[in-house]
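[Discussion] Sanity-checking designs against the backbone

I'm trying to build intuition for which residues belong where. Below is a C-alpha cell string of 276 positions. I'd appreciate it if someone posts a full sequence so I can compare it with mine line by line.
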C-alpha cells in the first residue's frame, strides 16, 4: 500500500479551490468541500475521480480545481440533471440543472477538466472499465439508489482508493445505511470516518482487517441513526431530538490533512499489534 503524501502547497490550493466553489449554489459545506479537495489531492492511488450527483457543480468545481492543479485526469461527473427533489418538478417536469452546471464549470475555468455524463449512474456503470481512485457518491439518497451507486462502481475502486458519501449524517435513508452495512462492516475497507455529513473509507482489501476495531467502534455509533431514517419520514418532536443527539455522538469534526494521513497510514502498526 502506498503511503500518503501531503503536497506542500495543499493549503493554498484548497483556499483557491474554495474561492471558486463557494460561488456555486448547492448543499456542500465548506469543511466538506475542503475535505473532498484533500481526498482529490492526497489519495495514494492512480485512477479516475468519479462523482455521482453533480447538481449545479459545487463539488465538481472543488474536485476539478484540485485535480487540474496537480495534473490528474478530468473529473467524471455523472448526473441526469433532472432531480424532482432538487428542482421541484411539481411546478415544471422539464426543469434541469444542466445549464447551471455547465456555467459553473465554465466560470471556474474547468471546461477541459470535467468529463460530463448526462445520464443515470447505472447507465454509466454498465460500460465502465476504468480504475477509480476516488468515488464520490452524492446522487439518489434512497437506500436502493445509494446501494446501486456503490455496487455499480466499487468493482473499479483500486486498493488505497477512497469512497465517500454525502449526507450520511443528514436524515436520508441511503447513505448512512449503505456506509454502515457495506463499508464499515466489511474487511475490504481500512480507515474510515465522518467529516460533517461526509462519510469516507479507504479501500484496503489486503489489510482492511487491521482496521476492524476502528471501523466497528464507528459502526456501533453510526448504526444508531439508521432506525430514525430508514422509513424516509420527516423527523419531528422528540424523535428529531433523539436523532440529533445520536448524530452528535458520531465523531464528525473537520480533519487536518496530517491527521488524515496518520489515520490511513496506520496499517503497519495495526498489523504488528494483531500478530503479537
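Best answer:
Here's mine. Compare freely.
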Amino acid at each position: 500500500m502506498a503511503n500518503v503524501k501531503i503536497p506542500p502547497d495543499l493549503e493554498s490550493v484548497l483556499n483557491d479551490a474554495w474561492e471558486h466553489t463557494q460561488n456555486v449554489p448547492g448543499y456542500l459545506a465548506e469543511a466538506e468541500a475542503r475535505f473532498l479537495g484533500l481526498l482529490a489531492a492526497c489519495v495514494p492511488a492512480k485512477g479516475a475521480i468519479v462523482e455521482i450527483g453533480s447538481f449545479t457543480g459545487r463539488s465538481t468545481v472543488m474536485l476539478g480545481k484540485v485535480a487540474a492543479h496537480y495534473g490528474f485526469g478530468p473529473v467524471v461527473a455523472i448526473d441526469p440533471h433532472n432531480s424532482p427533489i432538487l428542482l421541484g418538478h411539481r411546478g415544471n417536469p422539464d426543469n434541469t440543472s444542466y445549464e447551471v452546471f455547465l456555467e459553473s464549470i465554465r466560470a471556474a475555468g474547468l471546461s477541459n477538466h470535467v468529463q460530463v455524463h448526462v445520464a443515470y449512474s447505472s447507465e454509466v456503470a454498465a460500460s465502465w472499465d476504468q480504475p477509480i481512485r476516488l468515488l464520490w457518491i452524492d446522487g439518489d439518497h434512497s437506500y436502493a439508489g445509494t446501494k446501486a451507486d456503490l455496487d455499480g462502481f466499487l468493482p473499479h475502486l483500486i486498493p488505497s482508493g477512497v469512497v465517500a458519501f454525502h449526507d450520511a449524517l443528514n436524515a436520508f435513508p441511503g447513505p448512512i445505511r449503505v456506509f454502515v452495512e457495506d463499508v464499515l462492516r466489511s474487511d475490504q475497507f481500512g480507515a474510515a470516518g465522518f467529516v460533517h455529513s461526509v462519510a469516507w473509507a479507504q479501500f484496503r482489501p489486503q489489510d482492511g482487517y487491521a482496521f476492524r476495531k476502528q471501523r466497528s467502534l464507528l459502526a456501533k455509533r453510526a448504526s444508531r441513526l439508521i432506525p430514525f431514517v430508514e422509513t424516509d419520514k420527516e423527523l419531528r418532536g422528540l424523535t428529531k431530538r433523539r436523532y440529533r443527539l445520536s448524530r452528535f455522538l458520531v465523531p464528525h469534526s473537520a480533519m487536518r490533512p496530517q491527521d488524515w494521513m496518520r489515520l490511513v497510514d496506520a496499517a503497519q502498526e495495526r498489523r504488528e499489534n494483531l500478530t503479537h
